[in-house]
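To whoever is on call:

I kicked off a structure prediction for a single chain this morning and the downstream step that reads the tokens threw a length-mismatch warning. I double-checked the sequence; it's 234 residues and nothing unusual in it as far as I can see. Pasting both halves so you can look.
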Amino acid sequence: MDDLNLAAPLAQALAAKGYETLTSVQTAVLADGLEGRDLLVSAQTGSGKTVAFGLAIAPEVLGNQTQLLYSDKPIALVVAPTRELALQVKREFDWLYGPAGAHLASCVGGMDYRTERRALERGAHIVVGTPGRLRDHIERGSLDLSACRAIVLDEADEMLDLGFAEDLEFILSSAPEDRRTLMFSATVPPLIAKLAKDFQKDALRVEVSSKEQQHSDISYQVLNCAPHDAEMCL
């Protein structure tokens, strides 16, 4: 991975996790000429995309630093469709950006709003959250995106399917126009294309067909049963 020119804290984090090579999507977003570009990435769940966009936004998060200084406003924002996915992203970023001294905060539905607000007040370099709760924090003034350099929309197609289009537009409109915007989506339906056109700048489409077998540790079995026995077979 030395030829990828990763920032020292990220290389250290990957080595500690036992990474020897990167997945297809992780390599794709680090290709020459993509740094600083808005990206619309087609990648399936299980392809390593969380680490991929964590690595992709490193120039915006770290700049030329190896250790992050205190920041009273977030530098980067990740938006995910569900609480579970958002908290999973935060856990991945905790170890990926840990060596750089990054502080992270989560803002997700179903969790205590006051605890989240205190975390934001203490200062977070990266905020991860769900659309509705993030909008709530912005409207209440506890989340200020004026210093945000990068926004990632994870599972963007799922967020639109769940009816979050208006919330996403509000969040994106609350951030600086010169920020970097990355969208990760398994599919790119017309609504995603419109969102990209409205809120990204000359976005580059990156399509990744992973050579790795996803979820290779899961085996599948098919059992045939009569309709009246279906409930007992579950």
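Update from on-call: the warning came from a stale cache, not from the record. Cleared it. Sanity check on the structure: The chain is about 40% helix and 15% strand.
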